[in-house]
Amino acid sequence: MSNEMKRAPMAVILAAGEGSRLGSLTDDSPKSLLPVGGSVILERIIRNCLSCGMSQFVLVLGHRADEVRQFVDKTFRGIRVTYVVNDRHRETGTGYSLMLASSVVGATEFIKFNSDVVFDAKILRALVDSQLTNVLCIDGNAALTGEKVKVMADQQMRISQIGQSVDPATALGESIGIEKISSSTAPLLFAALKATMDSAVQWQDPCEATYAELVANGTAFHALDITGMNWTEIETADDYAAANAMFGSPVTTVSRWQQNAQDEAITNPARAK
Length: 273
Fold this sequence. Notes:
By secondary structure, the chain is an alpha/beta fold. The chain contains eleven helices and 13 strands. Helix 3 links the parallel strand 4 and strand 5. Helix 7 crosses helix 8. It is globular, with a radius of gyration of 18 Å.
């Protein structure tokens, strides 16, 4: 295996939104800087990435961009981070924000994160370790309401449909907003996003709409089943309360060796002694 193949993916974090559905919670703070369990949301994402060996970051900012940049620069001195600003964040969605990262990412393998998703590092570790190309993390236990992005896949976990309109009765589960895109697919994805975003009518389209387009044109996307692992999306005040109940302690940067030792202590306490 070459060094290129061993290199950890780049992290692309979409943090341009205002979080208007959170009401007064975001009066004095950008959504991505809200604290959950003693660590702010964005810190949790970045530390989870560092724990999985990811060291290159692209942050797409918009609402209160300067505050987010200052937090990252102060908290994570020395990491390799490129900032991209979405000046149209009030008019656009995640697809547009991801498109803006194209000049930085190019043909590099990357993992895309929505900055309102709080998740256990085990999810990211499983995604980084997956040998499949173009992988979406899917929760089979999620409540599949109409607004959720749902996925259909075959027994080999190859995805056939992605979107809000997928029938919940036949869906494998919900896409949680964390995806790995291969180096060969990245240029195709960005080209498709640029074509789509050429029309202001589609500026609000999510990333998943373009994934669905690529799937329809024959690009292989796969599902990674993360059912049972901890994660939550924070869109409302109730979601925020649920996140704090699920993640009750600050996040730390843990090496792979340290995590393996911790897992061993939990599953085999006698051996760990």
